[in-house]
Design goal:
Blueprint: E1 2-7, H1 11-23, E2 26-31, H2 34-43, E3 48-52, H3 60-69, E4 76-80, H4 85-93, E5 96-101, H5 106-126, H6 129-141, H7 145-158, H8 163-175, H9 179-192
Parallel strand pairs: 1-2, 1-3, 3-4, 4-5
GO molecular function: DNA binding; kinase activity
Protein name: Stage 0 sporulation protein A homolog
Pfam families: Response_reg (PF00072)
Length: 193
């Protein structure tokens, strides 16, 4: 079960978020101030955290700054009633993955969770050269040579010894009418086969 931390000084917000997250299958721990939040971050590993900016004692932005300084990479979703451009920029620079303005509904929280899960899946998939290759082939089949080339080049960075990648790059260049580059990558491909 995924574990999430909810940090907010308002009891009702903590209760609403806890109920929403539990219904989505999360184990939830809560903190009502920044000091409690820091203690929980130091003693637990979380898959996700919801963090209010305006907290008594240690502010939410300071909590975020300190956990990052300690190498804690937990994805953090900022929740605030005081949405400002400066707060959004500061929190994004500290690695916040989303920004939710109060008041919010259960549907809004579900949507944020879905976006977060989708972006995590996409980033995991994109780390894999096979995913780049599959997508490059699909774009090649659709005659979108530029996108195919872009994805094949990303696959090449991940897996420089895969002959299939050189062939894909060659075919994409050929589709773009760049015969010289197409031939060069085809020759690379031939050295592997």
């Amino acid at each position: 079960m995924k574990k999430v931390l909810v940090v907010d000084d308002t009891k009702n917000i903590r209760m609403i978020l806890t109920k929403c997250l539990e219904l989505e299958g999360y184990e939830v721990l809560t903190a009502s101030d920044g000091t409690q939040a820091l203690e929980l971050f130091m003693t637990n590993t979380f898959d996700l955290a919801f963090l209010d900016i305006k907290l008594p004692g240690v502010r939410g932005t300071e909590v975020l700054k300190r956990i990052r300084e300690n190498g804690i990479k937990t994805p953090v979703i900022i929740i605030t009633a005081y949405a400002t451009v400066k707060n959004a920029v500061d929190c994004t620079n500290l690695g916040a993955v989303a920004y939710v303005q109060k008041p919010f509904s259960a549907d809004k929280i579900r949507n944020v969770l879905m976006e977060f899960e989708n972006s995590r899946l996409n980033s995991k998939n994109e780390e894999n050269s096979e995913n780049f290759i599959l997508r490059a082939k699909a774009f090649l089949d659709a005659n979108n040579y530029e996108k195919s080339l872009e994805l094949a080049q990303k696959a090449l960075v991940k897996d420089i010894e895969n002959p299939e990648v050189y062939l894909l790059i060659s075919r994409a260049y050929r589709g773009l009418g760049n015969e010289k580059s197409a031939e060069r990558f085809y020759q690379f491909y031939k050295t592997f086969t």
